[in-house]
Amino acid sequence: MNTQTVTAQHPINSPFSAASTAEEVIAGVDLSGRTAVVTGGYSGLGLETTRALLGAGARVIVPARRPESAGEALTGLHGAPCEIVPMDLADLGSVRAAAARIRETVDRLDFLMAVAGVMATPERRVGPGWEYQLAANHFGHFALVSELYPLLRDAQGARVVVYSSGGHGITDFRWHDPHFRSGYDRWHAYGQAKTANVLFAVHLDALGRGDGVQAFALHPGSIITGLQRELTRREQVELGWVDQQGAVIGEGFKSPAQGAATGLWAATSPLLAGHSGLYLEDCEVARVTDEDDPTGDGWVRSYAVDQSSAERLWGLSVAATGAGPIG
Fold first, then answer.
1. Helix H segments across the chain?
2. Residue 327, domain member (yes or no)
3. Would residue 287 count as lying in a domain?
4. Lowest CB count within 10 Å: 38, 52, 134, 287, which one?
């Protein structure tokens, strides 16, 4: 195992915490003249992220699988219009078309916030038979970043923030069967996709270092949003997340505003200028653990930040998506 990223995973005395909100993290930050792309930027954590970035003066572009719904959700935020670009992360043709439109309208990109995602979906195949969660959560974002990399490079200090999850602890990447040909498990498929998100950030950061492009992955915390739409109320009750009426009762669960805080901290904090390619949680750098049942918050599995695995996944992703070289 390559230990460079593993040993860099230690707290850096952030002034924020699990209780911090998006508004608190972005307070006093001036993003005038800066441009951000926020996938999933019209619901849940993405909407909170878009709201905060607009409030700080940034121009925000929101790729959306449901453009009409995005338009309704984003109307009137801080009095500044969002630019909505149709895009389906599970359709590489759609991703490339969206990236082309973005390249036509901006000459640099300061932030790419990969917030959109799906969780624990029924078995579904897309493209050439890809498992849907891996395609939507990883391959789509991988292709989007690859297509927009020249804009990130030209920003001279861009940051890519990839939303993963504590769910990455379910499983390492399934190199032997990433598309679950031998039998589908929706939670293992989710865990694999979230591990892929972390590995993606690790190698993207390594490739982008010479261009001043930083990348981070993160766990936003446990939050009830549209992400849980594939789970029934009964399933969520059994998991201890909500009560019979749907009210959130899960211990340590955050509000959407708190859930968006770590991503905004990753994008804007000067403390992270010399600390990139890392996995974050609760507005702090997470520790590495391989315990079966980690205690406390702020942890990441060593397999998810292993640089050799990150490079291997990059090669697999290039072969799958046909993305060109970066860096």
1. 4-8, 22-26, 44-55, 67-74, 92-105, 132-134, 140-155, 186-208, 233-238, 256-259, 261-268, 307-321
2. no
3. yes
4. 287
Q: What is the CATH number of the domain that holds 13?
A: 3.40.50.720
Q: Does pTM top 0.85 for this prediction? A: yes
Total number of domains constituting the chain: 1
- Whether 42 is catalytic: no
Q: What are the Cα distances from residue 182, in Å, to 131, 177, 185, 196?
A: 12, 7, 10, 20
Task: Centre a 10 Å sphere on the Cβ of residue 153 and count the other Cβ atoms it contains.
Answer: 18
Catalytic-labelled residue, pool 132, 149, 163, 190:
190
| CA separation, residue 213 to residues 103, 131, 222 (Å) | 17, 29, 28
- In a 10 Å sphere around its CB, with 0-12 CB exposed, 13-18 middle and 19+ buried, how is residue 156 labelled? exposed
Residue 326 falls inside a structural domain: no
Print pLDDT tens along the chain (327 aa).
555 567 789 999 999 999 999 999 999 999 999 999 999 999 999 999 999 999 999 999 999 999 999 999 998 776 667 899 999 999 999 999 999 999 999 999 999 999 999 999 999 999 999 999 999 999 999 999 999 999 999 998 999 999 999 999 999 999 999 999 999 999 999 999 999 999 999 999 999 999 999 999 999 987 866 666 666 678 767 777 778 877 776 788 899 999 999 999 999 999 999 898 999 999 999 999 987 766 667 899 999 999 999 999 999 999 999 998 886
Domain that holds residue 232: 4-321
3-state helix, strand, coil in the chain (%, to 5): 45, 15, 40
Token readout for 281 is 């949680």
